[in-house]
Amino acid sequence: MQRRLIIAFFLMTIMLILNGCMGRHEKVQKIIEPYEKVRLVMTANGTEIGIETLTARRFAKLVYEASGGSVQIEFYPNDELTGGNTNEAVRALTEGAVDLGAYVSGTISLIDPRLEIATIPWSFSDYQEARKVIDTTGGEYYKKILAEHGLVYLGSTHNAMRQLSSNRNPIRRPEDLRGMRIRVLGGEVYRAFFSTLGARPVTLGWSELNIAIQQGFIEGQENGFFLMKSGNLNKIQKYMTVWNYLYENYLFVANSKIFDRLEPKTQNLIREKMREACEWSRDYLEAEEKNIRKDFENDGLEVIDLTPEELAVFKEKVEPLRDKLKEKYGAEACKAFKIDMPK
């Protein structure tokens, strides 16, 4: 009897020790691996030096480090996953063939024109105003519209406050644009804007622009400082007018079905690190543009800042177009982006 009691006591002691070890092991596991192991695929149509690529790569790094390597983001620029076809890439994103994506509002508006609301000319006077609106009511509007199409809104960063450069003559008045062949993105707002001012908008791919300017087929183009530098356009253009006529941003999104299958803490991690990456890239682009402007001027590009009076003439000229676009996007969109509806 005594021997049985000793054996039972011995076995109970061993069990308690094992349970304690397992408990400690579980605690260690929770510390080392607090997130589920998951690999997500992300796509964008930007080049290796594009601001959306820089943002996406920083986001992937932040997520990887914060999750201890458990959550991995595989990023593919240049729409590599769809052979460079941006339309197919956006469709793959909405259908769940790709998990995450980053596209300018003008591109992702393929799924819903209302997503282009912020591109109404002179909706924002500067980057700070754009930040304030998009981080509050504007972002909530994006969230609502994207959800209708099976996408989760994660964040926004600057593409550019778009400026104008030319070879033919400096531009200070609408008359200076008359008949000028200007390369624009393929979109209603861009074409209508320059047509209203008397120019001849030409839709042309980015890869063709440099040669088209050098051959004289294109006389001017509109872009932000950052993209102009990446294409060395300052080397082949004589004049640049700074007028912040249009703001364009990148929207970072996730397929909702895929995102909803993630653990809540993983979802929160992705949202948090995307906001962090977007804030970093906004600050980076704003600071970089100031440096780029100095470089442009040092290289001999004539940079022109329009006076408030000069700018007012352009704004008055395109006011009918602004009213038309406001009606198109609707009162809800305009309210979210602090844009007054036509009286």
- Structural category is alpha/beta
Q: What is the CATH domain class?
A: Alpha Beta
Question: What is the average of the pLDDT values?
Answer: 91
Low-confidence stretches: 27-31
Percentage of β-strand residues: 15-25%
CATH superfamily label: Bacterial extracellular solute-binding protein, family 7
Q: Helical percent range?
A: 40-55%
Radius of gyration: 26 Å
What is the count of helical runs?
13
Give the total of beta strands: 9
Number of domains: 1
> What's the CATH topology label?
D-Maltodextrin-Binding Protein, domain 2
Shape: elongated
Under the CATH scheme, the architecture is 3-Layer(aba) Sandwich
Beginning-to-end CA distance, first to last residue: 99 Å
Structure description:
With 343 residues, this protein is an alpha/beta fold. It has a single domain (35-336), classed as Bacterial extracellular solute-binding protein, family 7 (D-Maltodextrin-Binding Protein, domain 2, 3-Layer(aba) Sandwich). It is built from 13 helices and 9 strands. The chain is elongated, with a radius of gyration of 26 Å. Residues 27-31 have low confidence and may be disordered.
Topology:
Layout: H1 2-32, E1 38-44, H2 51-66, E2 71-76, H3 86-95, E3 100-104, H4 105-108, H5 127-147, E4 151-166, E5 181-184, H6 188-196, E6 200-203, H7 206-214, E7 220-223, H8 225-230, E8 239-255, H9 256-260, H10 264-298, E9 302-305, H11 308-317, H12 319-329, H13 331-336
Parallel strand pairs: 1-2, 1-3, 5-6, 5-7, 8-9
Antiparallel strand pairs: 3-8, 4-7, 4-8
